[in-house]
Amino acid sequence: MRTPLLTLALATAVSLAACSTEGEMRAVDPAAGGGPSTATTAPADEAPAPVPDGPVTTHGLVTVLDDGSGPEMCLGAVAESYPPQCGGPALDGFDFGDVGAESASGVTWGSYALVGTFDGTTFTVTDSTPAALYDPMAEEPVDGLEAACSAPGGSGGGKTSPEDMDATLAAASALPGYASVWLTGDTINVAVTQDADGAEATLRETWDGGLCVTTVEKTDADLNAINQELQTALGDQLLTSGSTTPDALDARVVFDDGSIQDWADATFGDGLVRVTSALVPAS
């Protein structure tokens, strides 16, 4: 089963506070996750496709699904249907077991933490733990962005209604050099690449509450263009990519031994693209 393609418009960081921005996210089928390569940095026009040289594990629980063609490990998007729809690397040596699996319409699925080896196409399972028996380690909470200034100002009266906020957020996205907007409490934070004073004056026409305007290097359009290049270069290795903070893109790949991060730094600039790996070395 192929993973459904999930493409969202590159959103602003306002959703970090309002509805969980993931930027322009794209989920792809990692089943053809690339062939072996060395860990050295590839040329700027050729992304590496590393393959782990030892046991790896999923980063927590993943969906395993079998639609009759064999079990697959879903590392990317999972369609919220019944039964769910997703796809990924084929699994060898996997058994759903006696707990944790559901079946409907000829599809069997469940959530599992997996350990095994990965050759770039097939994940050979050496150990699996269903969600019902999985004991996750404590994870650090993920905080939203902080306010862009220490003194957001504002009269606290007048134009502070939800309608005023909506109008101000819309005005922010139309500013010259617009990069992003996010909320911290009732304070509107806006990032632009030029004329912060002019941007603040424009936004004060519709908003009397807390307001912080800051400058960054990359516009929303800049990050969108880079994200498109990233998706093209990484292809089926890429699970999701998008922007959740100004001047940065987050890319989740099937597996990275550091060579994809090195390539991204060399291609797009140090630290602009932050790469995380869905498969990590087993301890």
Number of helices: 5
Strand percentage lies at: 25-35%
Shape: elongated
Helix content percent band = 10-25%
Task: Look at the helices and sheets and give the structural class.
Answer: alpha+beta
Unreliable spans are: 1-44
Summed over residues and divided by their number, the pLDDT gives a mean of 84
- The H-and-E topology, N to C, reads as EHEEEEEEEEHEEHEHEEHE
Number of strands: 15
Largest sheet: 10 strands, mixed
Compute the gyration radius: what is it? 22 Å
Terminal Cα span = 30 Å
How would you characterize the overall build of this protein?
There is one protein chain. This protein is α+β, with helices and mostly antiparallel strands and 283 residues long. The protein is built from 5 helices and 15 strands. It has helices at residues 14-18, 162-173, 196-203, 220-234, 259-268; strands at 6-7, 26-27, 56-58, 62-66, 72-74, 90-92, 101-104, 107-118, 122-130, 178-184, 187-192, 211-215, 238-242, 249-255, 273-281. Strands 3, 4, 5, 6, 7, 8, 9, 13, 14 and 15 form a 10-stranded mixed sheet that branches. The chain has a 3-stranded mixed sheet with strand order 10-11-12. A two-stranded antiparallel ribbon has the order 1-2. Helix 5 (259-268) links the parallel strand 14 (249-255) and strand 15. The chain starts with 5 loop residues before the first strand and ends with a strand. 39% of the residues are buried. Residues 1-44 have low confidence and may be disordered.
Based on the model shown, name its key terms:
283 residues; alpha+beta; 3-stranded mixed β-sheet; 5 helices; elongated
